[in-house]
Design brief:
Blueprint: E1 2-6, H1 10-23, E2 26-31, H2 34-44, E3 49-52, H3 53-59, E4 62-65, H4 69-83, E5 87-90, H5 110-117, E6 122-126, E7 139-140, E8 143-144, E9 146-151, H6 154-166, E10 170-173, H7 180-185, H8 187-195
Parallel strand pairs: 1-2, 1-4, 2-3, 4-5, 5-6, 9-10
Antiparallel strand pairs: 6-9, 7-8
Helix pairs in contact: 1-2, 3-4, 4-5
């Protein structure tokens, strides 16, 4: 699979590196500065590439949006000509810079806003409830972790499911894209527990069944 990563932070670089090194997908890292994304190639291997956002968006059949929310809308608007018809995996959380609330109307979601900016693309929400350091740790206490995802297009969801399972997680389909608003608000439980010191940063939101 050809995957373009928009954003060179820990989530984007972590996902891209794992998909490239473990499953041999062709990954192109996109960053605001070419030097940053090209440095990721040294870790991700010879089948990866690096450049600016536009190059990554053009390269990928699947494009991962892994940006801070305050830059997401303007960046997606700029990349819209490259995204038509493609699967977009949105891993963002639309939080205020202080992480004390949503930066958007609670009656919608960041994923739905991205979809409205690129109506000819197919947005799937996924990976927003897991810390970057857990991306290579799909097992916890002998049970597989779930990655929750949702979207409106069957093919885009199938691509996302494959990429989730490639990392060893259970792909848990929550239905249509409007479910993204619940995935995004659920993150506040995690943030509050982190602030209380009850859980470590390297954690994930999950539902476990009794063994």
């Amino acid at each position: 699979m050809k995957i373009g990563i928009i954003g060179s932070g820990r989530m984007g670089s972590g996902l891209g590196t794992l998909w490239s090194t473990r499953r041999k997908h062709r990954v192109f890292f996109g960053s605001r500065k070419r030097m940053k994304s090209e440095s990721l190639m040294q870790v991700a291997g010879p089948d990866s590439g690096g450049g600016i956002y536009e190059e990554a968006a053009e390269f990928g059949d699947v494009v991962v949006i892994a940006l801070p929310w305050h830059t997401t809308e303007s960046t997606v608007e700029r990349l819209a000509p490259y995204l038509s018809g493609k699967t977009i995996i949105d891993v963002t959380n639309p939080l205020t810079p202080q992480q004390d609330g949503l930066a958007i109307d609670g009656n919608t979601s960041g994923a739905q806003i991205i979809q409205s900016l690129v109506p000819d693309a197919h947005v799937v929400k996924a990976f927003n409830g897991i810390y970057f350091d857990m991306l290579d740790k799909p097992m916890l206490n002998g049970q597989k972790l779930e990655i929750y995802y949702c979207g409106d297009n069957a093919d885009a969801k199938a691509h996302t499911k494959e990429l989730i399972e490639d990392l060893g997680f259970i792909a848990a389909d929550l239905g249509t894209l409007d479910m993204a608003r619940y995935l995004e608000t659920m993150i506040f439980i995690w943030i509050r527990r982190l602030q209380q010191g009850a859980i470590p940063p390297n954690s994930a939101i999950n539902i476990f069944k009794q063994r």
